[in-house]
Amino acid sequence: MAVQASTSASAPAPTPAPLVVNAEYYKEIERARRYLRALISSKNCAPMMLRLAFHDAGTYDALTKTGGPNGSIRNPQELNHSANRGLETAVDLCEKVKRKHPCITYADLYQLAGVVAVEVTGGPTIHFVPGRQDSLSSPKEGLLPDANKGADHLRSVFNRMGLEDKDIVALSGAHTLGGAHKQVSGFDGKWTEEPWKFDNSYFKELLKSSTKFPTPSNPPTGYSQQKPSSSAAGEDSTGRRLFIFSTDQALIKDPKFLEYVMLYEQDEEAFFRDYAASHKKLSELGFVPPTWTSRVITAVKNSSTMAKTAAGVAFATTAIAITFYYRQRSQREEE
Prior knowledge:
This protein is mostly helical. Helices cover 53% and strands 2% of the residues. It has 13 helices and 4 strands. The strands form 2 sheets. A two-stranded antiparallel sheet has the order 1-2. Strands 3-4 form a two-stranded antiparallel sheet. The chain is globular.
């Protein structure tokens, strides 16, 4: 039906098979979704899974129609790109899901993992459409955002994908989850007080950053951090530092970006709405779902609803029959 599972993250299937998205494939997606919920919750790996989904999709080039959410990040060549350092663990965790649900493509699996990561941490529901085809061709290095750069760079990267200012700011809000780790990026810290909760606190911290994140005299390139004297000035209750990258600072230095930052800081519902839309766009870059895919999804959902309705009717009928039986029996005993 689809790509066969590889034996490990470093040895992908040699030749992708044609993908058929039918009712059974969609049901398998739902089974994998349930497995991912349990896996991500138990391993506390939501930030990592979201990063995996972003990095697989973020190589898309709208002009050449190359890259994008096609599962190629599992290829050793691409996984070894400096921007993907540390994602080996996420790829390996996804292999556990792939072994249980081998018919699902890696491309669908990685994007589904990102969707679930947002949802299990309290974020918005993101409509997921399956049907992405796997690719064994990896893009060149350097297509993902560079944390050391500013607004022009962000626009260059995201505009190349076909995304706009609102998408850039909304997707940056995913920094509400997780943080940076010294062994991975050379940086250490987190963006928010609660890095396992998806909310709009990233934007709240950004708007405090002019006073709570004063730039040290000799900061690392692309990094703004200073350990303040109190928890109210840039560190959490455990004393661990909060921080921002140059790309984060760009969101409050650029007037157009700042408009969205201020909106999302004040209105979490607006952030969730725009984030869900932008995440869906990112996860479908270069992907055109077959016209019949939506009909398959609708049919499966309808059949599930009908089954639940039928079960409800049967239960109600049984309850009425039992009630009638005991009433008749009670009347006979009284006589």
